[in-house]
Amino acid sequence: MVTKNQIKLVVSLKQKKYRSQHGLFVVEGEKLVNELLDAGLKSYRIFVDDVGLAQKFERSELVSGKTLKQMSSLTRPSGVLGVFHMMGSEALGSNDWVVVLDAVRDPGNLGTIIRLCDWFGIKRLVCSIDTVDCYNPKVLQATMGSIARVNIQYTDLKGFLDKTDMPIYGAYMDGEPVYGSNMAEKGVLVMGNEANGVSDEVGKFITQKISIPQFGGTTTESLNVATATAILLNEIRRG
Amino acid sequence: MVTKNQIKLVVSLKQKKYRSQHGLFVVEGEKLVNELLDAGLKSYRIFVDDVGLAQKFERSELVSGKTLKQMSSLTRPSGVLGVFHMMGSEALGSNDWVVVLDAVRDPGNLGTIIRLCDWFGIKRLVCSIDTVDCYNPKVLQATMGSIARVNIQYTDLKGFLDKTDMPIYGAYMDGEPVYGSNMAEKGVLVMGNEANGVSDEVGKFITQKISIPQFGGTTTESLNVATATAILLNEIRRG
After folding, report:
1. Per-residue confidence in pLDDT tens, chain B, 239 aa
2. Based on the domain organization, do B52 and B77 belong to the same domain?
3. Is A195 found in the same domain as A120?
4. Is A37 on the interface with B (CB under 8 A)?
């Protein structure tokens, strides 16, 4: 039997404050819960509202549809809600490229960027404190299982950038075209905020400004930060 | 004074059926309305709920906040609602790359792809009949002004692909790595549905299957169709 206190705990995890406090986060949907389990993440509890689903998840707890709806962030709960332990963020050494995000605010963008890091084998993602929380449900929905394979750290970027001895590339509208820019073997790629790009504060640490050439001629808008990251990571890896 | 019938007309444009019937569509927000006007699109009516905004838009009509809310698709209407005439879709010749979408269903993905076509100077986008409508409000929110600079056509893909004499590239998980694949000067790039990729029916016309190499090693998920399009258009243009 699920207790009122347990329900209250799960509901509280909708807020970042309580996620950090308890070291727990919620994902919903059979597929996503399975992906995190496959990736080796430790589940705290798995709730299902159907006997068929209960058989699919070892040690899951059967609750009523009403209770699941109470715990869920979705308008139409999917029948499976997993509560997972957060991964520790190890201080990895930097033997490869590191992606740095400076105040990326949109959960869909962060989710897509995590998935891209996974695809391109980037193991380390460093986010400014004001970047959207990677355990936000909308981020998790967009990352799929990738969240388990990329080491994500929230920190003061100035401190981090000051210490690295790798070249620091920043994505700018008026940077040097990336095609000719002879990227290093390893380095740091800084992507900026959706509306304002890389902040001046972080900009001081950039050793090379790069850009994605535009072919249309008339666009005033920049590329979305997630699509720009896709193109730049591809440029880094294609060599 | 806005009449009841005009309000009814604007509300009806939330549905694709009525958009097609009237040849009209709605965009909301000062920035987006301005972008479409700057891009030369013909407005049918512009409604604002504030005198200050009325002065910014020539021939705009002042309505109450309540009326604007009635016409709006947004939970928090932005104060400016423009009704625009659809662009004609000219049968352009094919002097350059054409992007073809096979049943792309997510409005955000289509919006991002239109913006990418604009960025990379792709003038022509051909969509299967079951691709999401490009005048869907969520698509428009993601395209920004790009919708005015890319010629978008909805048609039976088999008929279109059968007639082209350009090479037809299709994005597949198991295609040839795009880095080595010596792309033609001009051609057709086919991107498939979010869940199922390129359909078998359309697949028959593909002359070369291409893929984006994966570096992570363990990912089971494919890249999102919009980020994959970003990388492939960059590959095409970078030469």
Report:
1. 789 999 999 999 999 999 999 999 999 999 999 989 988 889 999 999 999 999 999 889 999 999 999 999 988 889 999 999 998 766 566 689 999 999 999 999 999 999 999 999 999 999 999 999 999 999 998 888 898 889 999 999 999 999 999 999 999 999 999 998 788 999 999 999 999 999 999 999 999 999 999 997 766 678 999 999 999 999 999 97
2. yes
3. yes
4. no
Q: Do B132 and B224 belong to one domain?
A: yes
All residues of chain B having their beta carbon less than 8 Å from the beta carbon of residue A118 are 216, 218-219
Taking an 8 Å cut-off on Cβ atoms, the answer to whether B221 and A108 are in contact is: no
User: Which residue among B121, B224, B226 sits closest to A215, beta carbon to beta carbon?
Assistant: B121
Q: Which domain holds residue B119?
A: 98-238
A127 and A63 inside one domain: no
Indicate the residue among A61, A85, A109 that finishes a domain: A85
- What is the complex's ipTM, to 2 decimals? 0.87
Q: How many domains does chain B have?
A: 2
User: Alpha carbon of A161 to those of A93, A182, A194, B65: distances in Å?
Assistant: 14, 21, 21, 48
| Shortest distance, CA B29 to any CA of chain A (angstroms) | 16
Whether B221 sits inside 8 A of A120 (CB atoms) is no
Is A167 an 8 Å CB contact of chain B?
Answer: no
A237 touches B at CB < 8 Å: yes
Assess contact for A190 and A171: CB atoms under 8 A.
Answer: yes
Determine, for residues A115 and B234 on separate chains, whether the beta-carbon distance falls below 8 Å: no
Q: What backbone phi and psi angles, to 5 degrees, belong to B98?
A: -120, 135
Domain final position from A85, A118, A142: A85
In terms of Cβ atoms closer than 10 Å to its own Cβ (0-12, 13-18, 19+), residue B203 is: middle
Q: Is residue A92 situated within a structural domain?
A: no
Same domain, B71 and B107: no
Q: Half-sphere exposure of B232 toward its Cβ, with a 13 Å CA cutoff?
A: 33
